[in-house]
Write a structure and sequence with these properties.
By secondary structure, the protein is mainly α. 74% of the residues lie in helices and 0% in strands. 17% of the residues are buried.
């Protein structure tokens, strides 16, 4: 039927009835794009009855076309169903008593409202999911900052500990190197009389050394005089004079 109507339109391209019949054949074969085009061509007729039928079937074609892409392109489905409502409304303007057009109009309107509501819920859910992802990222950021702060604190603590260890090592090195830099200062130095103090450049003779030992034995009562340490009263850890 589709082929015969197309051949007839080659001879009479302005025949609105042929366009209407071609649209009906395309509709039956689920060729909804072709059906919509043919019914729009049929609307060029001056016959109000033919216009009424063309509008009615145009509404059906728009609905079926939108229904076929409801899952893949829901927004296009909404647009097609809106066109279907317009076509049914035009049918009712031409024939208010057309119960089929009125029924189809209410039916498509309910389907359209449901689809739009479903789309709104999906968009709202998508926005909420994005908000949750942003909140999770924001919650992770302070953790990273805290971790960075902790690492900085650990590094600072480690640096302080290293500085303290270096200070202690330097102090130990100074204490160990101190006897090599100068002679220990003890009570014997403070108790010596000016005439008994020896200059650093004076080389003591044997007689002078024996005289100094006798004087120390008389004053301290012992030859192995141990100078008092400033920080340690344990004589076993002190150096012998």
């Amino acid at each position: 039927a589709n082929s015969y109507y197309q051949e007839a339109l080659e001879d009479d391209p302005d025949n609105a009835a042929l366009h209407y019949n071609l649209g009906a054949a395309a509709y039956k074969s689920n060729s909804f794009d072709e059906a919509i085009s043919s019914f729009n061509q049929a609307l060029q007729s001056d016959d109000l009855s033919l216009q009424e039928k063309a509008y009615y079937n145009l509404g059906n074609s728009y609905f079926r076309q939108g229904e076929s892409m409801q899952i893949s392109h829901p927004q296009k489905t909404i647009e097609h169903w809106q066109e279907a409502l317009t076509a049914y409304s035009s049918t009712l303007k031409l024939q208010p008593d057309n119960q089929d057009a009125r029924f189809n109009h209410e039916f498509v309107k309910r389907k359209l409202d449901q689809l739009q509501q479903q789309q709104q819920q999906q968009q709202q859910q998508s926005q909420e999911n994005k908000g949750d992802e942003n909140n999770q990222q924001d919650n992770k950021q302070p953790d990273k900052q805290q971790e960075s702060s902790n690492q900085s604190g650990d590094e600072q603590s480690s640096a302080d500990q290293n500085n303290q260890e270096d200070t202690e090592k330097n102090r130990e090195n100074e204490e160990q190197s101190e006897p090599h830099q100068k002679q220990p200062q003890g009570e014997e130095d403070q108790q010596q009389r000016p005439d008994q103090q020896l200059s650093l450049g004076h080389k003591m003779s044997r007689e002078e050394a024996e005289q100094l030992l006798r004087e120390m034995q008389n004053e301290e009562g012992r030859l192995n005089f141990l100078p008092q340490s400033e920080n340690d009263n344990n004589s076993n850890k002190s150096r012998k004079w």
